[in-house]
Amino acid sequence: MWAEHQGGFALDIPDDWEALLDPRPDTAMVVVAPEIVRFRPNLVVTVGPSAPPDDPAEWQRAAAEGLSEKLNDFHLIDAEPYGNGFRQLAAYVREKRALTLEQWAWQWTRDGSDTLDVTMSATVPTLAYDVCADVMRTVVESWTTVEEAT
């Protein structure tokens, strides 16, 4: 099922997932999976004006530092280049629950004009990461323009 955003992008999400459009001013879309172990795995999509450093590794380090300031017991597990951005994997604790965050970020040139930063952050219970990781990656890699999705 295609979840389309008025900003010009679409994601192919599983039929039993829910897409919430513009739930907060800084969030373009949240896709939510069915509940697993009293938690709904989710993928948060932010799209905004481009402002990353020229070096994707520097952009990744800055993103990890920002997350470590906001999330309890944040531990970066892995980081690697991803297109013109990065992918990182981390663990943290919220409300006494161990969670795993996989995050992808890249720059998107919309309609050949403005360049925007795209960040997609998947959060799942750590014990369910093996079950959810491939599905989350598939949704992330389905990113396309609305025109190409229809």
What does this structure look like?
The N and C termini lie close together (11 Å). The protein has one domain (2-11, 46-149): 3-Layer(aba) Sandwich (Protein Transport Mog1p, Chain A). The mean pLDDT is 92. It is an alpha+beta fold and 150 residues long. A hairpin with a 3-residue loop joins strand 8 and strand 9 (114-125). It is built from three helices and ten strands; from the N terminus they run βββββαββββαβα.
Number of strands: 10
Bin the helical content: 10-25%
In the CATH hierarchy, what is the class? Alpha Beta
Could you tell me the mean pLDDT?
A: 92
Can you name the CATH architecture? 3-Layer(aba) Sandwich
- Strand order across the largest sheet: 3-4-5-9-8-7-6
Strand content: over 45%
Topology:
Layout: E1 2-4, E2 9-12, E3 18-24, E4 27-32, E5 42-49, H1 56-70, E6 72-82, E7 85-94, E8 97-110, E9 114-125, H2 129-141, E10 144-145, H3 146-149
Antiparallel strand pairs: 1-2, 2-10, 3-4, 4-5, 5-9, 6-7, 7-8, 8-9
What attributes characterize this protein structure?
10 strands, 150 residues, Protein Transport Mog1p, Chain A, 21% helix, alpha+beta, 7-stranded antiparallel sheet, globular, 3-stranded antiparallel sheet
